[in-house]
């Protein structure tokens, strides 16, 4: 993993907050299957970490929570970025040992495994290929969806076994269902993100610092897809980490200039994209 994409002067995803139906079931899954450590836990909320210090994921069980709603905006998946390919090999073997149902793709820029949590929230676990090997055409990075060469990845193993998420794991990106792309692109552009790749009229990928994507956006749940109800399982919010107060202030001004509201709650700035996805703007 190349650290520069997740430090100043870039803006990147810090952590993700999810709603689930049964907290204990989800804590078990995120600990035993994904490999998170529990930073803190109460009756209805748990804070999860890879390094025992930094929160990457918060899961919460609201009162009267409802199952995930189809064909709405919200989470497509959040993506856990491992430090290197060896760690991906360890995870792949761990998933295989536990008969975990998986999707898998080679995207040229990265190699990725896909699965769902017990509530149907989408998760990607991936490692990046060196950015020096990424192919650029007309200022867009070339990404594909090819089958993953699982045997080649497992060839990285030399007897090492999985021990949970390693130190150095970060929230690599978030991929969202949105109701349309044009206003959404404009919105994230004002937060400082540039389009790095487009998939026809259905999806686009945005980042800072020429990463392959910190944010993915698609209309696969349907153009005009409504926001899910507040009680639905799924995304509560995600945070964007800005390099400075000044950079965050500029982003706040720019989205307000487009007519979007930015609220301040307990010192945290919160806004919503055009599809009602909630974003915490942090530094």
From TrEMBL:
Residues 12-128, 170-283 form the VOC domain. Pfam families: Glyoxalase. CDD domains: VOC_BsCatE_like_N. Transmembrane segments: none annotated. Keywords: Metal-binding. SUPFAM superfamilies: Glyoxalase/Bleomycin resistance protein/Dihydroxybiphenyl dioxygenase (SSF54593). This is VOC family protein. It comes from Halobacillus shinanisalinarum.
């Amino acid at each position: 993993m190349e650290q520069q994409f997740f430090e100043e002067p870039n803006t990147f995803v810090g952590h993700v907050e999810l709603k689930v139906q049964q907290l204990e079931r989800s804590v078990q899954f995120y600990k035993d299957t994904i490999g998170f450590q529990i930073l803190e836990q109460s009756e209805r909320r748990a804070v999860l970490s890879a390094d025992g210090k930094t929160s990457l994921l918060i899961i919460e069980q609201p009162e009267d929570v409802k199952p995930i709603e189809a064909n709405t905006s919200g989470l497509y998946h959040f993506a856990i970025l491992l430090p290197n390919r060896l760690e991906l090999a360890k995870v792949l073997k761990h998933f295989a040992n536990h008969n975990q149902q998986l999707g898998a793709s080679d995207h040229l820029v990265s190699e990725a495994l896909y699965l769902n949590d017990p509530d149907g929230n989408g998760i990607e676990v991936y490692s990046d290929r060196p950015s020096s090997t990424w192919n650029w055409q007309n200022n867009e990075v070339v990404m594909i969806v090819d089958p993953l060469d699982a045997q080649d990845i497992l060839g990285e193993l030399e007897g090492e076994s999985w021990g949970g998420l390693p130190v150095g794991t970060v929230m690599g990106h978030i991929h969202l269902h949105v109701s349309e792309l044009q206003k959404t692109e404009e919105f994230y552009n004002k937060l400082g993100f540039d389009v790095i790749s487009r998939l026809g009229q259905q999806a686009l990928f945005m980042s800072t610092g020429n990463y392959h994507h910190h944010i993915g956006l698609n209309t696969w749940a349907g153009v005009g897809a409504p926001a899910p109800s507040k009680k639905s399982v799924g995304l509560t919010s995600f945070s964007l980490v800005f390099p400075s107060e000044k950079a965050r202030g500029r982003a706040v001004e720019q989205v307000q200039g487009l007519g979007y509201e930015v609220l301040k709650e307990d010192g945290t700035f919160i806004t919503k994209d055009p599809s009602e996805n909630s974003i915490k703007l942090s530094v």
